[in-house]
Amino acid sequence: MSELLQQLAQVLEQRKTADPKQSYVANLYSKGLDAILKKIGEEATETVIAAKNGDTNQLIYETADLWFHTLVLLTHQGLGPELVLNELQRRFGQSGLEEKAKRHQ
User: Which SUPFAM superfamilies match (predicted)?
Assistant: First the structure.
């Protein structure tokens, strides 16, 4: 699975130099951070609505959109999915309550 994320991250990185008229992602990059954040907000809302409606297929579809646009954000910020995967690995096997308490120390 992380191989797919790496492939997607490479394509998203390449889109930084693509023509905004030819690439959705390049167009989003050209509009800047606020446009990317707005899109993530939209996709998060659509994901919540799909879950609330109990529509499994729509939930999967919207979650894919949300993850995709989050990867666009990471790439825009010069970050890659491996950093998020590393953080999830760091947290793995740790109580969520314990991890949250450590953040406030």
Answer: all-alpha NTP pyrophosphatases
What domains are defined for the chain?
2-103 (1.10.287.1080)
- Residue-wise pLDDT for 34-61, tens only, equals 999 999 999 999 999 999 999 999 999 9
State pTM to two decimals.
Answer: 0.86
